[in-house]
Amino acid sequence: MASLQKAANDSASKATSSASADQPEETPSSEEIQKESTTAAQKALDLEKQAKDLTNAAAAAADPDERQKLLNQALAKTIEAQSHGKVAKYLSSGAFQGFLAGGGVGTGVGAGLGALTGTLVGGVSSLALGGVLGGIGSAVGALHGPWFKPEEIIGKGVNALSGMLPGWKASDGQKKQLEKMIGQVNEQKAPSMEELQVMATESSEKKV
């Protein structure tokens, strides 16, 4: 199951590259949100394809150990794909719009949209992984809980939000906002392939 753990951490680690200590705390525009949603939806489609390819390879594998390895990798890709899909859907939801109206990404969580997206993906992947490995209670209960360990689960994404960037510190209120958002994303039903395809093409269609 190491590949599943790695998938959750890898998803979250991408958040750090998008965050910076001096990032402006401005509410993202509708165009920026749409672009981020489109990117997440396309990533979900790509990961779903990878999961399908790995599953097919596992079915053709003669060696049992190799077959199990490929199936584990396929499951990891599926979890990551569903997490990206849920985040893409959430970015266009009324819940996220309400969050922005209440203060925006900058003042509400203290991170840029790209960093926030990466952290949400990592958090939701971790919750899904927790269910696969036995469902260790409710991970959304606290960021410092027995399963929801930032350094192991959400990785660099939450570390950025927890003050690992030089000269920057996330407040308890901001951490609670993040925790609430992860819960909202996780409670959604994962979008279908058809819904993902629509979300992945929305930005390009608007430019025509």
Automatic annotation (TrEMBL):
Residues 1-47 are annotated as: Disordered. It comes from the Eukaryota. Residues 7-21 have a biased composition (Low complexity). It comes from Aureobasidium uvarum. Residues 30-41 have a biased composition (Polar residues). This is Uncharacterized protein.
